[in-house]
Amino acid sequence: MTRIDALCFDANDPQELSRFWGEFLGWERTDEVDGPAVLPADDTGFRLRFLPTEATKSRQNQMHFDLTSRTPETQQETVDRALALGARHIDIGQRPEERHVVLADPEGNEFCVIPAGNSFLAGCPFIGAVSSDGSQAVGYFWSKALDWPLVWDQDEETAIRSPHGGPKVTWGGPPVAPKHGRNRLHFDLAVPSGGAPASAADRLVSLGAARADTAPCAPGWIAMTDPDGNEFCLRPAR
């Protein structure tokens, strides 16, 4: 079964963006062949990788983090730490009565700091969810692709979570924003040890994915898109 190996950010300055996220999350930074990465220090289960791009960010990302808070004080501490490292407040249309805080990292990638007591994220680590713009069908696809159970399926909104814990991955349902160009964030999936990438790709195609040439995949990896057209990369087993 394929698994999430990394969540990748296109970055104008990969070293600086990895520095921000490494220091903010308290995760170890490392240099890989095609760019820096930060390694999880909790049960998140996947790395963050930062890939060089010259393209500038021009629209709201299809995916963003929802970060958990234990108390009102820790929510404010998270916000203060992010701002001190180079984040900024942004307005994406959140209402005054909503208590989550919307921030952007130094390259404009959005993330939310959720108030304490949020029952949907109860039991999740600091990265409580990778919150995604997407259809119900794409939530069903990723549930089957990763063999993660649906933990939410109401009003065309879906969420999945690994049986081993970690963040949820959620999709907000319609209306889904039109896609213009390549997403700035994408998943790298790993083929299990001993598995064949071509066979894994064929299985994903049978579930609704498509082979593609738009994802920034390393040589020997397979570029694909999910049923909503979001890019991801399938890498051979190590």
From TrEMBL:
Pfam families: Glyoxalase_6. Keywords: Dioxygenase, Oxidoreductase. Gene3D superfamilies: 2,3-Dihydroxybiphenyl 1,2-Dioxygenase, domain 1. One of its GO terms (molecular function) is dioxygenase activity. It comes from the Bacteria. InterPro entries: Glyas_Bleomycin-R_OHBP_Dase (IPR029068), Glyoxalase_6 (IPR041581), VOC_core (IPR037523). Residues 3-116 form the VOC domain. This is Glyoxalase/Bleomycin resistance protein/Dioxygenase superfamily protein.
